[in-house]
Here is the input.
Amino acid sequence: MPEQDPQVRARNFLEVPTGYTHKMAQEEAARCLQCKKPACVEGCPVGVDIPGFIDLIAQGEMTKAIRHLWTMNALPAVCGRVCPQEIQCEGRCVVGRKGEPVAIGNLERYCADYEREHGTGELPPKAEPTGKKVAVVGSGPSGLTVAGDLIVKGHDVTIFEAFHKAGGVLVYGIPEFRLPKAIVAQEINFLERLGVKLQVNAVVGRTVTVDELFEEEGFDAVYIGVGAGLPRFMNIPGENLVGILSANEYLTRANLMKAYKFPDVDTPIPIGKNVVVLGAGNVAMDAARTAMRLGAENVKIVYRRSREEMPARAAEIHHAEEEGIEMYLLTNPTRYIGNDKGRLTGMECLKMELGEPDDSGRRRPVPIEGSEFEMDCDLCIVAVGSGANPLLTSDTPDMKLNRWGNIVADEKTGKTTKKGVWAGGDIVTGAATVILAMGAGREAANSMHDYLTLGW
Here is the structure.
């Protein structure tokens, strides 16, 4: 798929890939072998009939293609942009054994974009109303999936979102240049047109409790998909200096609160000259690329393991390097350095080497004695993971949590230990991918439908 030139895009917030033409999409779709036992479908957490929708694109049947996609995926424009296809559907593609796999993600994106720009607006069919009410707490990818699945099955669905805009991590976490917010809004509008109700500025656990959703508001089932939004820091000396903040706050200011649109939007955000981002996941790449676009002179990724262990998508790492972001691998910060005004001016780091594998299966980083060095930085963005926010769970004592504060839920159904309550996504698994959260939502929605129609 064509992309903006790296030197140009590194200073703007426009989407990096510019999209397929209709001819390009049909030519790519024609590469699909239409396997009788498609391994790509096995690699998709929501079980999309990939050969089916691709064949319809090849035939030029775009309206049929998007409706085929919608039967298993309520958010194709999102998934086509942010799913790690290289380790899921495309990673299983037979064509990829002797060359490039079929660009499934790009085709999914094209299909959704075509519908948005040229489609009829026709909605998929819905079942007759069941009279059952479902509350979905959180409007991230898992919550939106549950809402989309249950509304077409005939249930009355209301989403409760703590922020002033729906979308969860899709709007506060993923930058505009990777996932335009207008596209997220369009996907949510699709659910609202289907009949899903949306309540924003509704903090379940404070404005209303889970028990009150049942007892006072008459809901028959509740799904919790509030994500893992509690920032983690490294707890090293100097962490209270001005100029150190979590990626969660930084990206929320830039994305949800539109700080990148200054002066049209006057949300304050620090603009560093020498920026360091700690971590090497997708969030770290998003933060680093955002800092570059906001005007940093140089941006460094500091990560204590090697390139092979970097958890970010290969495409995101590639894009970051194209845009001039430096990678300091096998490097671990040991303390922050500040001036007499309490502002960050630098960081002391230690070189590492890889030892034996740890519990995660990755080789454990081991410090190299005497390898300390200092690095200039006036802004440090910490992207080393996030934990479970206790706001909702602390107010629901009869729901079991694990030792990290995540909700304990059945892996196959999403059922929690509290009757009538399901959970999925990052609040159960810890920080993971959009598509895995959607997969959890799909499994929970199926289980919730059984409960609402057959009983617990």
